[in-house]
Automatic annotation (TrEMBL), chain A:
It comes from the Bacteria. It catalyses: D-glucose 6-phosphate + NADP(+) = 6-phospho-D-glucono-1,5-lactone + NADPH + H(+). Belongs to the glucose-6-phosphate dehydrogenase family. Pfam families: G6PD_C, G6PD_N. Pathway: Carbohydrate degradation; pentose phosphate pathway; D-ribulose 5-phosphate from D-glucose 6-phosphate (oxidative stage): step 1/3. Catalyzes the oxidation of glucose 6-phosphate to 6-phosphogluconolactone. This is Glucose-6-phosphate 1-dehydrogenase. The active site is at H161. Substrate binds at H99, K103, E137, D156, K259. Residues 2-108 form the Glucose-6-phosphate dehydrogenase NAD-binding domain. It comes from Naasia aerilata. InterPro entries: G6P_DH (IPR001282), G6P_DH_AS (IPR019796), G6P_DH_C (IPR022675), G6P_DH_NAD-bd (IPR022674), NAD(P)-bd_dom_sf (IPR036291).
UniProtKB/TrEMBL annotation, chain B:
PANTHER family: OXPP CYCLE PROTEIN OPCA-RELATED. Residues 51-162 form the Glucose-6-phosphate dehydrogenase assembly protein OpcA N-terminal domain. This is Glucose-6-phosphate dehydrogenase assembly protein OpcA. Residues 205-225 are annotated as: Disordered. Residues 168-209 form the Glucose-6-phosphate dehydrogenase assembly protein OpcA C-terminal domain.
Length: 407, 225
């Protein structure tokens, strides 16, 4: 079936087709609408669904709607979008899809933290020095130039994926795994997130330049086809966030996301404080870094624990070693694609993995001041493709006496 | 196992590494360091062999980047990759990147995507060393930089230059090759009655960096007056 969004006949035809399917296939009036459409088309499409009666809720049948990011581009537009969608579908029938939450490794954060005794006792400010959440892509914006201009890395992935990862990493233990309990804890921790006072010192952004990356000649962001050459949209964003809870007081969460970086990788690294080293001479532990638990979200899904070990030999030398859990090794069963899992959940009406509107609002409240500040700062700093971002991002960490890990 | 990846990119090699790991479990993350070997086209094998021997002591990922010293023509740009694991790679995994033409311009971005997470990076130039070792694209990402004065056109001048541009982490094989010599010397000097050294005379081949480098200086640092 095809038709434009303003074509009444097409939606009527859609309704007839669905009614036919109800009869032929026994779908019994249960329908899910997956709206993979530009944000500005939402009012007309939801209105069409209402007008044609497709969205009408009836007893014993369900009507659900799946919407994709972006969930608005700031708090105001997110609220408008939500109003439009919820004017037709009740809040419980709206499924905001964030495919990261369908990934095994992300769901495993809950298992790792709450099914084990090993981690939770040290998962707090007494032991954790800081947390780094990285989402790096090695590709550029490519054919999405038009969409990307004006959006940028922060709105594109930090608002949804990275803040969701932060919430799952930092939240308190929920009373159960049902949707309400889980969302409550996520909302609680997101509402406790605060930005440092001086955003010029605690955020960084950049744009990739052209050059050679991994043996390939690549175009700079401003020279991409269809891109506005004066664009001030960032392709790299980094920021420090603090969480005002007793568990995380004084533990910064550093978020970074970008395109054309060193390699494609998404990771959460919980970096621990250094143990007192008075037993060891400085030279003995010079190769010892801070202990860390790294959750590899993609690729090569798994968890790495880094700690020190004695180097074999007569002397006492301590060096970093890793303990490694890989999904591909421990389980030969292939895990379902994130989207498969999520679409199944939509059909079953199982919402724990879908952020609700309050979470979206809270994450915009975190991001809006940063975007406002950036909009006054002119052109972002350029960084070479295939590196780990602009110099200002390294300076951000250096000011806190830390550095980004190589993921 | 040897996997050839003709006409590829760093991202292509990286994907292949993940796939090999998933399928065969050959590659562990338990490596303790990444060794980057920068050399010229055609000289990869000798370096790999030496690295494989060393890997029995330190399991590591070896990345060999080789390119033609002169050509930087953009139209002939390409990268041929190769991955060796298991029996063909000692206790390590070896990635060979042969960069042609313009693909060799940015050495740093060729290698960055293949470095092990967190692990220290050691760089080694078995042949010609860059002008200022610690400032070179590969030298900058390494915590330890190894050169070999004996393979430079003028070994002695190179050593002098190296000492002028020294940065923490710079190492030359000339020093390693002196280890036995130094041990002998220390054994002699470290015995009572600890008399002061009043003169030092070094004999050896004139162009050997071993003789020309540090032994007198090193011997004198504590005992010469």
């Amino acid at each position: 079936m095809s038709g434009t969004f303003d074509d009444d006949a097409a939606f009527d035809e859609l309704k007839r087709t669905i009614a036919q399917l109800d009869q032929d296939r026994g779908t019994m009036g249960n329908h899910a609408f997956y709206l993979s459409i530009p944000p500005k088309a939402f009012p007309i499409v939801t209105e069409q669904l209402r007008r044609s009666g497709l969205a009408e809720q009836k007893d014993g049948e369900w009507r659900r709607v799946v919407i994709e990011k972006p969930f608005g581009s700031d708090l105001k537009t997110a609220r408008e979008l939500n109003k439009v969608v919820e004017s037709v579908f009740p809040a419980d029938s709206v499924f905001r899809i964030d495919h990261y939450l369908g990934k095994e490794t992300v769901q495993n954060i809950l298992a790792l933290r709450f099914a084990n005794q090993l981690y939770e006792p040290i998962w707090n400010a007494n032991y954790v020095d800081h947390v780094q959440i990285t989402m790096a892509e090695d590709i550029g914006v490519g054919g999405r130039a038009g969409y990307y201009d004006g959006i940028g890395a922060a709105r594109d992935v930090i608002q949804n994926h990275l803040l969701q990862l932060l919430a799952l990493t930092a939240m308190e233990e929920p009373v159960s795994f049902d949707a309400r309990a889980l969302r409550q804890e996520k909302e609680k921790v997101l509402s406790a997130v605060s930005l440092p006072k001086d955003l010029s010192k605690s955020t960084a952004r950049g744009q990739y330049s052209g050059g050679w990356q991994g043996g390939e000649k690549v175009t700079g962001f401003l020279e991409e086809e269809g891109m506005n050459p004066q664009s001030v949209t960032e392709t790299y964003a980094a920021m420090r966030l603090d969480i005002n809870t007793r568990r995380w007081s004084g533990v910064p969460f550093y978020l970074r996301a970008g395109k054309r970086l060193g390699r494609r990788v998404t990771e959460i690294a919980v970096v621990f404080k250094r143990a007192p080293q008075y037993l060891f001479a400085e030279a003995q532990t010079s190769q010892l870094g801070q202990n860390a638990i790294v959750i590899r979200v993609q690729p090569d899904e798994g968890v790495t624990i880094r700690s020190g070990s004695k180097v074999p030999g007569a002397g006492m030398q301590v060096r970093d070693v890793t303990m490694d859990f890989g999904y591909g090794h421990a389980f030969t069963e292939a895990s379902p694609e994130a989207y498969e899992r999520l679409i199944l959940d939509v059909l079953l009406g199982d919402p724990p993995l879908f952020p609700r509107h309050q979470e979206v609002e809270l994450s915009w409240k975190i991001l809006d001041p940063v975007e406002e500040f950036w909009s006054t700062q002119g052109q972002p700093e350029q960084y070479r493709p295939g590196t780990w971002g602009p110099a200002s991002a390294d300076a951000l960490m250096a000011r806190d006496g830390r550095s980004w890990r190589r993921p | 196992m040897i996997v050839d990846l003709p006409n590829t990119t760093t991202a292509g090699v990286s994907k292949a590494l993940v796939k090999i790991r998933e399928e065969g479990g050959v590659i562990a993350l338990g490596r303790v360091l990444t060794l980057v070997i920068a050399t010229e086209l055609g000289h990869e094998e000798e370096a790999i062999e030496a690295a494989n021997d060393a890997s029995r002591e330190h399991p590591m990922r070896v990345i060999v980047v080789s390119h033609d010293a002169d050509s930087r023509a953009e139209d002939t740009a390409k990268v041929d990759g190769q991955i060796r694991v298991g029996g063909d790679a000692g206790a390590s995994e070896v990635v060979v990147l042969r960069a042609f033409g313009g693909a060799a311009i940015d050495e740093e971005s060729l290698v960055t995507g293949l470095l092990l997470p967190d692990a220290p990076v050691v760089a080694w130039w078995p042949g010609l060393a860059p002008e200022v070792v610690s400032q070179s694209p590969i030298g900058r990402m390494a915590t330890r930089r190894i050169t070999d004065a004996s393979t430079q056109p003028d070994p002695l001048a190179f050593l002098n230059h190296l000492s002028d541009t020294y940065a923490p982490g710079d190492t030359d094989f000339a020093w390693t090759r002196l280890t036995l010599w130094r041990a002998q010397l220390a054994a002699v000097l470290d015995q009572p009655p600890y008399e002061p050294v009043i003169g030092v005379e070094v004999h050896g081949a004139e162009d050997s960096p071993r003789q020309g480098s540090s032994p007198p200086g090193w011997g004198c640092s504590s005992r010469c007056r």
